[in-house]
Design goal:
- With 77 residues, this protein is α+β, with helices and mostly antiparallel strands.
- It has one domain (2-75).
- Helices cover 22% and strands 38% of the residues.
- The chain has helices spanning 15-21, 66-75, and strands at 2-4, 7-9, 27-31, 34-37, 41-46, 52-56, 61-63.
- The strands form three sheets. Strands 5-6-7 form a three-stranded antiparallel β-sheet, with helices on one face. It has a two-stranded antiparallel sheet with strand order 1-2. The chain has a two-stranded antiparallel sheet with strand order 3-4.
- It starts with a strand and ends with a helix.
Length: 77
């Protein structure tokens, strides 16, 4: 499922295939089941396990995997 501008779309392709079609400068896979557009990230905050809690502008909240959390910190976003 893709969430965009308060609308959701059901797609029938693997998330890895979708990830390959997106601009890596704008889109980051933060979990095995989630890709985010960095332009719509409102804030990120580390939790007790040092994983990033991602808050999107639309109110959606996600938890980044450990590897994605490290990568996002290294990107200095």
């Amino acid at each position: 499922m893709i969430a965009a501008r308060e609308t959701t779309f059901l797609v029938r392709i693997a998330i890895s295939e979708l990830e390959g079609r997106l601009d890596p400068a704008k889109f980051v896979r933060v979990h095995r089941s989630a890709i985010v557009n960095l332009e719509y990230v409102e804030s990120m905050k580390a939790d007790e396990q040092s994983q990033l809690q991602i808050h999107m502008r639309d109110g959606t909240q996600l938890v980044a995997s450990r590897d994605a959390s490290k990568m996002l910190r290294d990107m200095s976003i």
